[in-house]
Amino acid sequence: MQGRGIAWRDMNRLRSILIGNRYYFLTFLFFFLLGVYIILSEGKAASFFSLNPYHSVVLDAFFVKFTLLGDGIFALVVFLIMLVLRRYSQAWQLLVAFLASALCAQLLKSYFSMPRPKQFFNPGQYAYFIDGVTHIGFSSFPSGHSTSVFTLATMLALFEKNKRWNVCYLLAAVAVGYSRIYLGQHFLGDVLMGSLLGTLLSVLVHWLFTRRSGSQVVLNS
User: Cβ neighbours of residue 55 under 8 Å, at least 6 residues apart?
Assistant: First the structure.
């Protein structure tokens, strides 16, 4: 009976996390399902081309900088800022979620060994690869930057008291995910898997921390 009561409280805590941040997760679900639909309807290669209809020097420069939000160094900077602000629990949650998602992403990269777009396409088949920026190799699936930025965005959304900001975090993460496709680093499926990995592990880590501390998750309207 005691074990059943603990399990019930744990499920209620998880439910509270999801409901309290429903706008974030519903928006994530919309973009994720949209991406899945694009892949299923167009395929891997065609969806890459359809998502890259236009390139310019200005957009190239913007996305080269903006994609750095998905770099692990940026997440570590946010972690250090949280420590300085004495938001210790949030800082450790972010670090654990980041390390767990990064490890999972690297394991999946090694297991699947999928070619990056520049490795996948024949020379001249795609004209917008950026010299010195676009990589080759077989570490495309999943996208590490997407994993990192969705881990960060989800954790920030879970910590945010003003839930109106949550969609902003999500949209920023979506834009970083798109930057990986624009820069020719990943396919849409790589980004989707990275986003799912970062989001799910962030929720899991946050749930485990609140479960361990026994803190209550406040529902927000």
Answer: 128, 182
Residue type, 12: N
Tens of pLDDT, residues 76-124: 999 999 999 999 999 999 999 999 999 999 999 999 999 999 999 999 9
User: Is-cis flag, bond preceding 142, omega within 30?
Assistant: yes
Between CA 100 and CA 89 the distance in angstroms is 16
CA distances from 25 to 22, 150, 189 (A): 5, 11, 19
Q: Which two tokens stand for residue 55?
A: 């390139």
Read off the pTM. Answer: 0.92
Rounded Cα distance, 91 and 96, in Å: 9
Domains annotated for the chain, with CATH where assigned, are 2-213 (1.20.144)
**What DSSP character marks residue 114?**
P
Spatial contact of 210 and 17, defined as CB atoms under 8 Å apart: yes
